């Protein structure tokens, strides 16, 4: 008897998640007026975390919560506002690290796995496909008003991305991070 077709896909997804989930963290940025939450990806065993610049914008204090639910203080190392990226550092060695792939190797129709902390739910996973490549996306300013800025060369996916996914991993079927979740298209947005 042949195995159901869904079984290899499920096993492959479990392998991808085994590689990606341990390296995805929840990011919390406290500002003078409240807090913002997002996601991040550990990319250095010495505690380096990649997230979105807009997640940590105007932060007075930063923390990350590891996949083990352990909270750690973080500090901002640097930001690239044009590409909406920021690097944080936590004081912890030997952390699980994500493997990174090349977004240039992606093709429209490739499977896409999004891992992050939407609505504060850590370790949330959605799947879909790469819907388009090289998109130009308008990202509002940090207050959500005004014209904001344009991100160029973005990857579009139909995997569900919600508030809090920002800074999380977009992974390929080999468990490599090929993008960082940044923006959500909503009704009325192009």
Which bin fits the share of residues in helices? under 10%
Strand arrangement across the biggest beta sheet: 1-2-3-6-5-4
How many helices? The count is 1
Give the overall shape, derived from the CA principal axes.
globular
* SSE series: HEEEEEEEEEEEE
Mean pLDDT: 89
Secondary structural class: mainly beta
Low confidence ranges: none
How many strands appear in the DSSP assignment?
Answer: 12
Radius of gyration: 16 Å
Describe this structure as you would to a colleague.
- The chain is mainly β and about 190 residues long.
- About 10% of the residues lie in helices and about 45% in strands.
- It has one helix at about 5-20, and strands at about 25-30, 35-45, 50, 60-65, 70-80, 85-90, 100, 110-115, 125-140, 150-155, 170, 175-180.
- The strands form two sheets. Strands 1-2-3-6-5-4 form a six-stranded antiparallel barrel.
- Strand 2 (about 35-45) and strand 3 (about 50) form a beta hairpin.
- It is globular and about 40 Å long.
- It starts with 5 loop residues before the first helix and ends in a 10-residue tail after the last strand.
Task: For this entry, give a set of tags.
single chain; 190 residues; mainly beta; 6-stranded antiparallel beta barrel; 6-stranded mixed beta sheet; 1 helix; 12 strands; 45% strand
Summarize this, please?
The chain is mainly beta and 190 residues long. 8% of the residues lie in helices and 45% in strands.
């Amino acid at each position: 008897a042949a195995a159901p077709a869904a079984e290899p896909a499920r096993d492959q997804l479990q392998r991808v998640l085994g590689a990606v989930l341990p390296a995805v963290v929840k990011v919390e940025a406290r500002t003078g007026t409240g807090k913002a939450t997002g996601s991040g990806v550990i990319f250095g065993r010495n505690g380096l975390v990649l997230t979105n610049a807009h997640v940590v914008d105007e932060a007075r204090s930063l923390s990350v919560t590891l996949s083990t639910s352990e909270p750690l203080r973080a500090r901002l190392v640097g930001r690239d506002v044009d590409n909406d990226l920021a690097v944080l550092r936590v004081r912890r060695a030997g952390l699980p690290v994500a493997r990174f792939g090349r977004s240039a190797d992606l093709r429209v129709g490739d499977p896409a796995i999004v891992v992050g902390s939407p609505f504060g739910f850590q370790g949330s996973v959605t799947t879909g496909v790469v819907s388009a490549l090289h998109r130009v996306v308008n990202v509002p300013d940090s207050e959500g008003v005004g014209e904001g800025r344009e991100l160029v060369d973005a990857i579009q996916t139909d995997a569900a991305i919600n508030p809090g996914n920002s800074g999380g991993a977009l992974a390929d079927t080999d468990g490599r991070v090929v993008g960082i979740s940044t923006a959500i298209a909503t009704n009325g947005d192009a």
